[in-house]
Amino acid sequence: MSLDKNGIAKRIAQELQDGYYVNLGIGIPTLVANYVPDGMDVVLQSENGLLGIGPFPEKGKADADLINAGKQTVTTIAGSSFFDSSLSFAMIRGGHIDLTVLGAFEVTDKGDISSWKIPGKMVKGMGGAMDLVAAAKNIIVATTHTDRNGNPKLKAACSLPLTGVNCVKKIVSDLAVIEITEKGFKLLERAPGVSVEEIVEKTGAPLVIDGEIPEMQI
Amino acid sequence: MNKVVKDASEAIKGMESGQTLMLGGFGLCGIPENTIKALVASELKDLTCISNNAGVDNFGLGALLRKHQIKKMVSSYVGENKEFERQMLSGELEVDLVPQGTLAERIRAGGAGIPAFYVPAGYGTEVGEGKESREFNGKMHLLEHALTADFAVIKAWKGDAMGNLIFRETANNFNQPMAMAGKITIAEVEELVPAGELDPNQIHTPGVFVQRIFQGVDYEKRIEFETVRE
């Protein structure tokens, strides 16, 4: 069974470590916040100027001055801080953020990613994605393994405009956990009940497969 | 030193068509609502607007776009605005999309007297086309140039007559760096107080960066996506 988006988020949450500062992109990455293991101290950064994102506000308590990078109303946690956009990206560019999780249209076996523009269809701008992928110490892509038409999103070259090059370290999809190594995509884990053959078939570039591939534990 | 002006229409005196403006805010959070309304009411046109976003269809910079007062936008993200998309695709509007952190730093650098600097963002992408690149510590970087503006238009929570400013929560965003980068910086505030009433320890923007300040009125503070706990 392929994972649903919450399953992908749960598996990514296993990559978190105590003390991490993390930036979560819009979509599936945001869901990772729901699966931070109990007792683990993880602080979420929002690039519009908030360190320590709290849950959504209670009904009637939304504050127009307190939003996340997706422009949704949020709250603070004990120990939150606010700052301006240049300091926020100094945090990101300066390597102070331990992990970035974001979505993608395509990822290559060299760690290139396209995620912001579909020429002629969607030109909304890159927001902070290019800064994040160029600078974060560790970048995990959360994505479905194939697009709506069944075409591989993991491939040898991106066909869409790039967000960054040589930057993605790991991919967690609905079918597999894949690391990007010097030899290309390396299959680490498969979703429960999904065969290695299915993953190979649905990946658009060769996979390094070393021995028995375990199932994800989620 | 008293920098107080009466209202937004007095604050924009001397602004001319064809000039470059910076406008603070992230989405609709922390935008200078009063000054944008005064701009919409003015006959100014052919403006170049540097702003992270372009408002929504009928509010914020979206209102200026509808009146075709903007010639060029320099932004990082312009979703949530159909009229923007239409003008961009038809070629009526020139658009320069800049990675958000690079945009913030270009503005800060403009205010800080740093003409250019290197960043990794955008290397190997279309953002890097035609730009000088250089390797530092084994990683490729792009040369990016500072941005300044004829007028920076920002919004703060509290301000005093000398132009000292305090921002609130995530409504700070681009307002603080933009305050530094305007030849003339206009600050509108929710609460204007006499000099001496703000705690100097709490000031985000020292008054030296601000030339005109006024008490804003009738803030709508619209929320783009109101999300609440289930």
SSE blueprint:
The complex is a heterodimer of chains A (218) and B (230).
Chain A: H1 5-13, E1 21-24, H2 28-31, E2 43-46, E3 50-53, E4 76-82, H3 85-93, E5 99-102, E6 106-108, E7 113-114, E8 117-118, E9 122-123, H4 129-135, E10 139-143, E11 154-155, E12 170-173, E13 176-181, E14 184-190, H5 196-201, E15 207-208
Chain B: H1 8-11, E1 20-23, H2 33-41, E2 47-50, H3 61-66, E3 70-75, H4 82-89, E4 94-97, H5 100-112, E5 116-119, E6 133-136, E7 139-145, E8 149-160, E9 165-166, H6 175-181, E10 182-193, E11 212-215
Parallel strand pairs in B: 1-2, 1-8, 2-3, 3-4, 8-10, 10-11
Antiparallel strand pairs in B: 5-7, 6-7, 8-9
Tag the structure with descriptive keywords.
A: about 220 residues, alpha/beta, Glutaconate Coenzyme A-transferase, about 25% strand, B: about 230 residues, eight-stranded mixed β-sheet, three-stranded antiparallel β-sheet, 6 helices
Question: What's a concise summary of this model?
Answer:
Helices cover 16% and strands 27% of the residues of chain A. Chain A is of the alpha/beta class and 218 residues long. Chain A has one domain (5-208): Glutaconate Coenzyme A-transferase.
Structure explained in plain terms:
- In chain A, the strands form 3 sheets. Chain A has a 10-stranded mixed beta sheet with strand order 4-3-2-1-5-10-12-13-14-15. A 3-stranded mixed beta sheet of chain A has the order 7-6-11, with no helix packed on it. In chain A, strands 8-9 form a two-stranded antiparallel ribbon.
- Chain A has helices at residues 5-13, 28-31, 85-93, 129-135, 196-201; strands spanning 21-24, 43-46, 50-53, 76-82, 99-102, 106-108, 113-114, 117-118, 122-123, 139-143, 154-155, 170-173, 176-181, 184-190, 207-208.
- The longest helix of chain A has 9 residues, at 5-13.
- Helices cover 16% and strands 27% of the residues of chain A.
- Chain A is globular, with a radius of gyration of 17 Å.
- Chain A is of the alpha/beta class.
- The two termini of chain A are 13 Å apart.
- Chain B is of the alpha/beta class and 230 residues long.
- Chain B has 6 helices and 11 strands.
- Chain B has helices spanning 8-11, 33-41, 61-66, 82-89, 100-112, 175-181, and strands spanning 20-23, 47-50, 70-75, 94-97, 116-119, 133-136, 139-145, 149-160, 165-166, 182-193, 212-215.
- In chain B, helix 2 (33-41) links the parallel strand 1 and strand 2 (47-50).
- Classes of the chains: A alpha/beta (218), B alpha/beta (230).
- At the A-B interface, helix 3 and helix 4 of A face helix 4, helix 5 and helix 6 of B.
